[in-house]
Design brief:
Number of helices: 4
Shape: globular
Helix content: 25-40%
Order of helices and strands: EHEHEEEHEEH
Distance between the termini: 58 Å
């Protein structure tokens, strides 16, 4: 059977970009069991409350919810188990260097299949304050209004 080509997004954490300022992103593989992969292929996963954590020089993903596979038997997995992330040693050291700062954390942005392999996009992120969020919303609204005005002007409506 030929391997899948391209990228198929299973789950994304849209709130992460609202709550955090993204400093850097990394792509990591995940050590999964068979029923977890089958459940992911059905498009079932949730990144709400998920975060990355370092333990003994390895990075683990906590709090990601992959529901049990419906056709699974006694071999089914635990839905919120801790999953090991597969990264190169140099990437881990670079990531840990950035995590030493105050208020910086590892946040998963999305889970997807790339060429048949389950991957997670991790972000080194710093939490935003409420006034930063309001400022981002105001800038986004101002940019939308500018683009609308430019669009109207180019069409000759104004």
């Amino acid at each position: 059977m030929p391997r899948e080509q391209g990228r198929k997004v299973v789950a994304s954490n849209r709130k992460a970009r609202h709550d955090y300022a993204i400093l850097d992103t990394y792509e990591a593989g995940m050590a999964l069991t068979g029923t977890e992969v089958k459940s992911l292929r059905l498009g079932r996963a949730s990144l709400v409350d998920a975060f990355g954590h370092e333990n003994n020089g390895e990075i683990f993903l906590h709090g990601m919810h992959i529901p049990e596979y419906t056709q699974g038997t006694w071999t089914n997995h635990e839905p919120r188990r801790t999953r090991k992330l597969l990264l190169h040693r140099a990437e881990i050291f670079k990531m840990l260097g950035k995590l030493r700062d105050d208020g910086v954390t590892l946040v998963p942005l999305q889970v997807y299949f790339e060429n048949g392999y389950a991957k997670v996009e991790l972000a080194v992120a710093k939490g935003k304050k409420s006034y930063d969020k309001r400022q981002d919303l105001a800038t986004r609204d101002a940019n939308k209004e500018i683009n609308r005005a430019l669009g109207r002007r180019s069409k000759g409506m104004d």
